[in-house]
Design goal:
heterodimer, A: 284 residues, alpha/beta, 2 domains, 10-stranded mixed sheet, 34% helix, B: 259 residues, mainly alpha, MetI-like fold, 11 helices, globular, binds adenosine-5'-triphosphate, binds magnesium ion
Chain lengths: 284, 259
């Protein structure tokens, strides 16, 4: 799929990093996110464990890319490398041509273990505020960001509750709201809709597509649900084990805007999900 | 739920009342010089402490206790953070902590008693020193057990070092810090009394020991009674503070148990 030419996002979160970005940013040949021959080995010596050996794929600006792959293949590991939490063992991951060496300012990550990623001593709203404090936003904007993020995940009523007072699916939505309030340019989510009910899941998928459109966000989602991957994505990266490698990058050519009922009933949708499924089902 | 709470409260308050009543009646006609009637003790209690020696001795003791404990609490938490977060400090202090962890805090009291000289300053110092270690060790343990997931969140959202310390590590370690503070408070109380019994002429401890040495057993019992009441009240205050600061933790634990 061709790189979408995207107007640069108004950058709200940072002051200096945009200035440092090389000219190549504008060029259609530099992908927003570039993963090249990435490898990750945990530990060293005898106990070392290579989870990712050689991963290569790209994500263009404004694109939604889904990653699917068997459990334990190393999807979370990959995302943590992209988020700058783990250093790559070899190869590299880059944003706009800059190698990721620490958490990039333009990125937010929704963790898989949402129940362990919220601060239990903070109310829902304060959980959203914590990452925004150092941005020194005006009070009105801070409130507006939290209000709209909570409204987006339908949790406006819960803003004064503590995470542990909420159901698993609600906690997951708080974690998503926290990322939304941060207004990242690149949003990475690790199985974000795994424990919500079907209706909420559809809503969150559509929210995902909406924020991509409204904010021109670049979104990378790990999911176990092949239908979801095909519905959301411009491209689906299918991972095989072990160690993790890209089996195939499937271009999803479904019309936009997508709709839960019409898109999912297209023959093309069925064809694409079958393609992804057969890649996963086949013994790697 | 409510009924259980009420019943527990009645039992909690009723038992001491019953014991006091038993003490009152059993000791009523006592001629044993060591066990004077409770009535006599209470009269002396009132005469001595309310409010003859209140300012000179009770307030003095309480002042030392709170000052020493406050210093220990702040220093213990700060040193705990430094030990857990600054590698050279960790290498230096870790062996000491491993050694101290095996010793019940009260067993350290003799060391500090031997350090006690004369004067308030020395007394406060020894209270603070003795009470420091439980808090410090608990703080180190608390920080080390903060989950990696929370620290990953802090890094992804690029919290500053100060925010990571004050807004993530400190609250996350708070439940353990509070268990440390509780032990520190007990130690501070013991050292406070001990410091007054040794080489001092002022304070509740000094008065109580003096009474014992002068065979004024009713006065001695009155002193012990006062210490008991103070210990009880201090513990209640501490529990209230804990319940306020750790309400999120108590709530989440209750929720986890119910699930
Ligand atoms: N911090 C770590 N240290 C050592 N090994 C790890 C670490 N984190 C993950 N692993 C190992 O890496 C492998 C991949 O784990 P990872 O969590 O990335 O898989 P995943 O694809 O996200 O699985 P799932 O779909 O179940 O979430 C597993 O074998 C796991 O044991
Ligand atoms: Mg995972």
């Amino acid at each position: 799929m061709s790189a979408r030419q995207a107007p640069a996002l108004p950058t709200r979160n940072r002051k200096s990093t945009m200035a440092q970005q090389p000219e190549t940013r504008i060029s259609a040949t530099t992908p927003r996110l570039d993963v090249a021959h990435l490898a990750k080995t945990y530990g060293s010596g005898e106990k070392s464990h290579t989870v990712i050996e050689d991963l290569t794929f790209t994500v263009d600006a404004g694109e939604v890319v889904c990653i699917v792959g068997p459990s334990g293949v190393g999807k979370t590991t990959l995302l943590k490398c992209l988020a700058g939490l783990h250093p790559a063992s070899s190869g590299r991951a880059a944003i706009d041509g800059r190698t990721i060496s620490g958490p990039p300012p333009e990125m937010a990550l929704v963790f898989q273990d949402y129940n362990r990623s919220l601060m239990p001593w903070l109310t829902v709203r304060k959980n959203l505020v914590l990452p925004l404090r150092h941005l020194k936003l005006p009070a009105a904007e801070l409130k507006e960001r939290c209000d709209s993020a909570l409204a987006a995940v339908a949790l406006s009523h819960a803003d004064n509750q503590y995470p542990w007072q909420l159901s698993g699916g609600m906690q997951q939505r708080v974690a998503i709201a926290r990322a939304l309030a941060y207004r990242p340019e690149i949003l990475i989510m690790d199985e974000p809709f795994a424990s919500v009910d079907a209706q909420t899941r559809f809503d969150l998928e559509d929210l995902c597509l909406k924020i991509r459109k409204d904010f021109n966000m670049t979104i990378l989602v790990v999911t176990h649900d092949i239908d979801e991957a095909v519905y959301l994505a411009d491209r689906v990266v299918v991972l095989g084990s072990r160690p993790a490698r890209v089996l195939k990058v499937v271009d999803v050519d479904l019309p936009v805007p997508r709709d839960q009922i019409t898109t999912r009933s297209l023959p093309e949708f069925a064809r694409q999900r079958t393609e992804v499924l057969s890649l996963i089902k086949r013994p790697a | 739920m409510r009924n259980v709470a009420v019943r527990n409260w009645v039992i909690g308050a009723g038992t001491p009342v019953l014991l006091l009543a038993a003490w009152w009646f059993l000791s009523a006609n006592s001629a044993d010089p060591f066990f004077p009637p409770l009535e006599t003790i209470l009269i002396r209690f009132q005469e001595l402490w309310l409010f003859d020696h209140f300012q000179s001795d009770v307030l003095l003791s309480l002042g030392n206790l709170f000052l020493g404990f406050a210093i220990a609490a702040v220093a213990g938490v700060v040193l705990g953070f430094v030990t857990a977060l600054v590698p050279p400090a960790r290498w230096m202090i870790d062996p000491l902590i491993h050694f101290l962890r095996g010793i019940p805090p009260v067993a350290l009291v003799p060391i500090f008693i031997s350090l006690i000289g004369f004067g308030t300053q020395m007394r406060v110092t020894s209270i603070a020193l003795a009470a420091l270690f439980p808090t410090m060790i608990a703080t180190v343990d608390g920080i080390r057990s903060v989950s990696n997931d929370l620290m990953d969140v802090a890094r992804v959202y690029r919290l500053s070092r100060k925010e990571r310390v004050l807004n993530v590590l400190l609250p996350a370690a708070m439940p353990q810090i509070f268990s440390g503070l509780q032990v520190s408070l007990q130690v501070a109380f013991i050292v406070m009394i001990a410091s007054e019994m040794l080489g001092s002429s002022q304070g509740i401890g000094a008065m109580t020991l003096l009474a014992q040495q002068s065979f004024m057993t009713a006065d001695m019992w009155a002193g012990i009674l006062l210490l008991g009441v103070i210990g009880f009240l201090v513990n209640i205050l501490f529990s209230l503070l804990k319940r306020k600061v750790l309400s999120w933790y108590i709530g989440s634990r209750r929720m986890a148990r119910a699930a």
